[in-house]
Amino acid sequence: MNNNEENILKVEHLQKSYGNHQVLRDISFDINKGEIMTIIGPSGGGKSTMLRCINLLEDPTEGKILFYGDNILAPKYDLNHYRSKVGMVFQQFNLFNNKNVLQNCMIGQESVLGRSKTEAEKIARENLQKVGMEAYAEAKPAQLSGGQQQRVAIARAISMNPEVLLFDEPTSALDPEMVGEVLKTMSNLAKTGLTMVIVTHEMGFARDISNHVVFMSDGVITEQGTPDQIFNHPQEEKTQKFLRNFRNEQF
Ligand SMILES: Nc1ncnc2c1ncn2[C@@H]1O[C@H](COP(=O)(O)OP(=O)(O)OP(=O)(O)O)[C@@H](O)[C@H]1O
């Protein structure tokens, strides 16, 4: 972990319940600027819920989320500021099907960031080029493969100039042959220095891309550390068991 770098996001004792069902129990971690944090663990462990809490798509029941030291859950915090700095890429892409690829990458820039149409188009085209989708600018999302749609969703997210980009299982909805192109796009993005938090079931990818790996099970972070610590020397029985299930097939 880059402990000498500037802390950008700090989660302290986060809890989330749905009625009597406590999904997140006591989640704490730090993310430094430029860090690539992956969140792994068994299904139903609370990974997506945690990401959705960070993105304020869910209200945490207890705890703090500090962005550059300020608690975004405090009543006076300017949430529009936070929302404009933290982007998210979803499993199901969430593109507007009635708009073309270019328009999808421009909407938020104009409405949220107040960029002019000309500026938004320039930035959208640059980012579509970065993800290899510039030739499809005029296409509608429904005309594209899942992998192509996800690359457009990534272009849209980075067009908003986020400081942190969250990925919620970005390849889980894809046919296997399309997973690689999306992971490659994310690896390229990681090299630009963007801070990324990624929930994934792609263990080889998590090992290769991260500098901070969090293992979550039953709403608790049972272990976190460098990829070498988590993948090569896991200390906890739950982590060891989870990784054993993947080892022969996916590594
Ligand atoms: N809106 C909701 N209402 C009630 N329960 C929910 C809701 N969202 C999630 N849960 C429950 O919270 C628990 C954690 O779900 P979550 O999707 O966060 O796990 P996950 O680790 O991301 O799983 P997966 O890897 O399968 O996506 C599950 O038991 C799920 O049923």
Automatic annotation (TrEMBL):
Main location (coarse class): membrane
Membrane topology: Peripheral membrane protein
UniProt xrefs under InterPro entries: AAA+_ATPase, ABC_ATPase_HisP-typ, ABC_transporter-like_ATP-bd, ABC_transporter-like_CS, MetN_ABC_transporter-like, P-loop_NTPase
N-terminal signal peptide: none
PROSITE patterns in the record: ABC_TRANSPORTER_1 (PS00211), ABC_TRANSPORTER_2 (PS50893)
Subcellular location as annotated: Cell membrane
Gene3D superfamilies named among the record's database cross-references: P-loop containing nucleotide triphosphate hydrolases
Claim: Chaperone is one of the keywords in the record: no
Pfam families per UniProt: ABC_tran (PF00005)
CDD domains listed in its UniProt record: ABC_HisP_GlnQ (cd03262)
Annotated GO MF terms: ABC-type amino acid transporter activity; ATP binding; ATP hydrolysis activity
SUPFAM superfamilies, A to Z: P-loop containing nucleoside triphosphate hydrolases
GO cellular component: plasma membrane
Sorted UniProt keywords: Amino-acid transport, ATP-binding, Cell membrane, Membrane, Nucleotide-binding, Transport
ABC transporter domain sequence ranges: 9-243
Sequence similarity: Belongs to the ABC transporter superfamily.
UniProt protein name: Amino acid ABC transporter ATP-binding protein
Species for this entry: Lactobacillus rodentium
Lineage, top ranks: Bacteria, Bacillati, Bacillota, Bacilli, Lactobacillales
